[in-house]
UniProtKB/TrEMBL annotation:
This is proline dehydrogenase. The lineage of its organism: Bacteria, Bacillati, Actinomycetota, Actinomycetes, Kitasatosporales. Its EC number is 1.5.5.2. Pfam families: Pro_dh. It catalyses: L-proline + a quinone = (S)-1-pyrroline-5-carboxylate + a quinol + H(+). It comes from the Bacteria. Its cofactor is FAD. InterPro entries: FAD-linked_oxidoreductase-like, PRODH_bac_arc, Proline_DH_dom, Proline_oxidase. Keywords: FAD, Flavoprotein, Nucleotide-binding, Oxidoreductase, Proline metabolism. Residues 43-299 form the Proline dehydrogenase domain. Pathway: Amino-acid degradation; L-proline degradation into L-glutamate; L-glutamate from L-proline: step 1/2. It is an enzyme of class 1 (oxidoreductase).
């Protein structure tokens, strides 16, 4: 029952101040976030790639209220693209972006987000990498998929994310399962109403498997975003059933969660991509990580007790 409470807390300014001020928070955040600055994130990326892993980077910042913040986020991703190219990492690292960080929720936000994300996708393509559009709450799905369609006219490798807890996602998977389409399937980490999303964990899991079957049977490139051992095993079985080679799909897991499993999958020849967030605006991301897995919350609470 703590999950919904933590998701609500992820958007509370008052709770943010309390959590941010706790002495134990920063060391715990460091488990899930690769630093606040790009200069801290790049060594983390290099260390992962040297262990046979691939990476997607997220410069944290969402739900902005000022158009100037959208420009700063755009510039942060342009700097990231430049750094990946300069460090020779563009072939192993792509980028994930939340369109709310580019102004999607502001007045005229759809056009604003498209205008800001386009140069990032252009720069990524020129550097030899690509971008995946993260999915946020259900109110943003139509806008995000429309921006995806526009970007794919010029940059067909632009990736999409879909969330199995939304009722609409099976239809979205069918629409996105075409040739060359890169689609990351996740369960979902936002608090959604019962009118649009499954509320029961078992129903979310069943929907995940149905969506995974659609993607594996299609002509696109499925990206399995899950730490759940059952989903990993099911994905491997579906890949075999549909005759997919190891380079025709990949697994994705979050930085700091199940690192041994990440390395095991990579050692078996699977493409294993680690989602690496960095930046000063870590609070919302951190609270969602606590909400979605009891083990994460237990880790944080043990740290609090240990420092108490």
């Amino acid at each position: 029952m703590l999950g919904p409470v933590l998701l609500a807390a992820s958007r509370s300014a008052a709770i943010r101040r309390i959590v941010s001020a706790a002495p134990v928070t920063r060391p715990t955040v460091d488990r899930f976030v690769a630093g606040e600055r790009l200069a801290e994130a790049i060594p983390a990326v290099r260390a992962l790639t040297e262990r046979g892993l691939e990476v997607t980077l997220d410069h944290l910042g969402e739900d902005i209220t000022d158009p100037a913040e959208a420009l700063r986020n755009r510039d942060a991703y342009l700097a990231l693209t430049e750094a990946l190219a300069a460090e020779g990492l563009a072939g192993r690292a792509e980028m994930s972006v939340k369109l709310s960080a580019f102004g999607q929720a502001l007045s005229g936000g759809h056009d604003l987000a498209l205008a800001h994300v386009t140069p990032v996708v252009e720069a990524a393509d020129a550097a030899g990498t690509t971008v995946t559009l993260d999915m946020e709450d259900h109110t943003t799905v139509d806008s995000t998929l429309a921006i995806l369609t526009e970007l794919r006219r010029r940059f067909p490798r632009t990736g999409a994310v879909v969330q199995s807890y939304l009722f609409r996602t099976e239809d979205d998977c069918r629409a996105l399962a075409g040739e060359g389409s890169r689609v990351r399937l996740v369960k979902g980490a936002y608090k959604e109403p019962a009118s649009v999303a499954h509320q029961d964990k078992r129903e979310v899991d069943l929907a995940y498997v149905r969506c995974l079957k659609i993607l594996m049977a299609g002509e696109g490139y499925p990206m399995i975003g899950s730490h759940d051992p059952r989903m990993v095993a099911i994905a491997q079985e579906l890949a075999r059933r549909f005759g997919r080679k190891l380079d025709e799909y990949e697994f994705q897991m979050l930085y700091g969660i199940r690192p041994a499993e990440q390395e095991r999958l990579a050692a078996e020849g699977h493409r294993m991509r680690v989602y690496v967030p960095y930046g000063t605006d870590w609070y919302g991301y951190f609270m969602r990580r606590l909400a979605e897995r009891p083990a994460n919350l237990a880790f944080f609470l043990r740290s609090l007790v240990g420092r108490g």
